[in-house]
Structure formats: structure tokens, C-alpha cells
Amino acid sequence: LVRLHNAVLRASFAALTPGSRAILTPPWPDLVIGAGRRSASAARKIKKLSGGRTKLVHVMHPGAGAGDFDLIAQPAHDARPTAGNILTIPADVLDMAREEWAPVFAHLPRPLVALMVGGSTRRREFGPEMAAEVAGLAAKMAREQGGALLVSTSRRVEKSEDPGTMPALLAAIADVPHHLYRWGDPAGNPYMGYLAHADAVVVTGDSVSMSTEACARPGAVYLYAPPPLITPKHKRFHDYLFGEGYARPLTAETVWQDWTHAPLNPSEDIARAIRARLHIGA
After folding, report:
1. What is d(CA 136, CA 264) in angstroms, rounded to the nearest whole number?
2. Which residues of the chain are modeled with pLDDT < 50?
3. Burial code of 257-267, b = ≥16 C-beta within 10 A, e = fewer?
4. Are strands 200-204 and 220-224 parallel, antiparallel or unpaired?
């Protein structure tokens, strides 16, 4: 039932397993914080059972029944209409990751350029040409500075419909010192370690989450976002990051610059809004 639209589910526990429903019992909480479409109907049901006393905060637009939520943290790139209950947002772990992965990267020359590769989406294809281009640009950046690459691939690029995509990427980084993590490697995912240690991050713009995570650190971020790869929604998000100084475009003309920005941290904005608008907490 979780696949049903929220307009059908309405305020209900219908899409939850029996075990989950069994533990949702009174007393109902003062505040429920949910995220994503799937939790929205359950949150609305809790508010209904509490007689309207429970406050609801939701990260990302819940779809149907938005009026039941006291605060919705809505990413700016969703381009939805605003309302009185909507907070528009730009969408310590790194310290732990820095310590954990320092010995693994110690042999690599600095600066370190992290390359985070997403891949094809439902509407856009990331094939060998793009793989070679983004990897080549990142390798060029590291090579010219006498540094190294930290390369992470996703399931989408590893499972590309074009069998030439991964070989094209690997060929482009072959002559540069690098640490490579390929999706599915059982040795452990160094993703957070890459973000913690990188002097600059190159990320493919098909992934909002990877772009946001890269911008959560203060170092340089370069977005690879050729028009054939990017949807209008992604472009709005990228324009926000560029406009606010969180990231810069990666093109053939990009040259190495050591620059910083304030870390992107929308969670702080959401917490402040909860305290101010709902009068919760000190």
C-alpha cells in the first residue's frame, strides 16, 4: 500500500506493517518530524488521533494533505508554491571520518580532489562521453597541482546500460595517483572520508544529495552539469548553489582555485524555524 498516492492513503497507518502499527500508541507526542512522502500519512494520522494537539514538521513536501502540517521544509528547487506553513530551504561526522581515513590516504600527494560520480537518471543518460569528460577534468585538476584523486562511483554508473561507461571513467584517471571506491566494494565505503579529506570536490550534478553533502563542507565544490544530464529541477538547485557561492560550474575552462564558502546546513534553519514558529524548545 505504500505505493499508493497520499491522496488515497489520507491520514492513516494503512501503509505500515502490523508491527509498526502495534507500537504507535498513546500518549501521542508533542511533535512529529517526518521526511519524504512515505511517512506523511502516518504523521497525519497521529495528529488526528491526538485531537490536533500534535505538531507536525515535514522535510520535503508531503504531497496531499499539506495543510495538516504545521511546518514543511521544502527544497527551493522543487519550485512549488509557498504557503504560511512552508519554509524554503537550500536542500560532527566529518571529524570522525577525517580521523578514521587519514592513514588510508596518507601516501597520496596533496591536494586531494574528490570525484563523486552519480550516473544516469530516469530522464537523462550518463554515458561514456560524460564519464570520460568529468573524470578527465577532475584528473587534470589534480595532475596540474601535483595532487591525487579520491574517486567514488555509484550503483547507477556501475550498472550503466552502456558497457563502455565505467571503462571510459577508469581510463581517464589511470595516470593520476588515486584512491578508488567502486560501488559494492565490501572493504568499506570511504565516502565521508573523501569529503573530510578533500581539498576540492567534483560532483556530478545529477544527484541533489551528493551535491548538498559536498557543499556541507567549507572547501571548493565544482558541479559537472552539462545540459543533456540536467533536468530543470536540478538546474534550479544548481543555480541556487552557484548564486549563494556554495559551488562553481566545472567546465573545460575551469582552473584550480583554493576557495572556501560557508558550509551549507539547512538543518540549522529548520531547527530555528521549529523553535520560532511552533514555540518548541528554548
Report:
1. 27
2. 91
3. eeeebeebebe
4. parallel
